[in-house]
Amino acid sequence: MNEAAETKNIGLRGIKVADTRISDVNGEKGILIYRGYNVVDLARSSTFEEVSFLLIHDHLPGKKELEKHRAELVAERGVPEAVFELMKKMPKLAHPMDVLQAVIPFLASFDPHLHMETREANIKKAIRLIAKVSSVVAAWDRIRNDLEPVPPNPELSHAGNFLYMLRGTPPDPETARDFDICLILHAEHSFNASTFAGREVASTHAHMYASVAAAMGALSGEIHGGANSEVMKMLLEIGEVGRVGAWISDKLGKGGKVMGMGHAVYRTEDPRATVLRGVCDRMVHRFGDRRWVDISKAIETVTKEEFKRLKGKEIYPNVDFYSASVYHMMGIPRDLFTPVFAISRMSGLTAHIIEEKFAEAQPKPELYRPDADYVGTYCGPEACEFVPLDERKP
Ligand SMILES: CC(C)(COP(=O)(O)OP(=O)(O)OC[C@H]1O[C@@H](n2cnc3c(N)ncnc32)[C@H](O)[C@@H]1OP(=O)(O)O)[C@@H](O)C(=O)NCCC(=O)NCCS
Hints:
By secondary structure, the chain is mostly helical. It has helices spanning 3-7, 39-45, 48-57, 63-75, 81-89, 96-108, 119-144, 158-167, 173-185, 193-202, 208-219, 227-238, 244-253, 271-287, 291-311, 319-329, 337-357; strands spanning 23-26, 31-34, 37-38.
């Protein structure tokens, strides 16, 4: 088999397309590293503000740097009124990911540094996007419910402020911290589908907002960022622990997918799922509602057993599996789960776009341009004889 044949029709699994300094996913060992730091340590001991600084600037911030970064994020939380006016004209049933994907290029037109392609200008754009996407997502939920957007609260963290802008009341500190952990865990994951889409667009010299908008399209898909919302749909459909066994057997027996289970890279438990299982348990302890966690744990057990029986392979929960119950317990609407993923991923994604634009890992040809073998037969690989419209069969 020649090299081209080996890399073809495998969905780029295991194919290295570039170097990156931003993160590393060790699928065999279940380790995720952001800029040299283990995500489990970051989730335990840092904040989303620290992690977003780390991802963009390539080192953990000192106290003064963190203060400045926080202040910049807070200062950029505001969204031009014209953006809200546009959102108010959108159909109320529009999916929040579609709204986000539409609004991001609109935000571009308000960015004073849009066409300035220096590294510093792109860092400014990254900070703006990290700050404003959170405000846009919260505002859309208000607007579609005939409520006015809640202005950001500069006293609150990025995590706490999002929940505040969504509900209009500040979250309790434990919930704000648990949400902060969710943001840390979703911040970055190497060359996943949406990040690669963003880098691919950035490689054409398109600007940051165009690259991010493309990535949002990729993130919306149900086997990528859309999976967390699909997990919740499954939990609601199953409804009680007693129905898990039959539901999963039926799903897998028919060749269907159990959302939130399996991963393209991890061959053991996704470390983010381990942390989120713990967050779930903590939230149950605080709020007393065991229902969703119990159903999730039963799904995990049954899927593992059934998968082994049917395919002779192991399967493990991924980041989306327990995040669904966590967001649901926080009162976040199901169709906002993927936009919440986007709020967090804005940090890793913009870091990747900057790395791509400035070839910060290793030089490579600027433009991504894969190839494909033409397998259409028609009149053979050479061109067909063109028949004018009037002479063709109707
Ligand atoms: C993420 C995902 C696309 C990875 O797929 P992949 O790279 O093909 O993963 P694998 O190579 O380990 O899959 C091996 C087999 O298990 C199946 N499989 C993987 N995840 C599965 C799941 N959640 N439910 C049922 N079957 C699954 C695959 O279809 C494949 O079947 P096949 O051998 O008959 O073709 C897949 O696991 C999936 O769709 N999971 C559910 C969606 C999800 O949670 N996505 C979020 C990922 S973070």
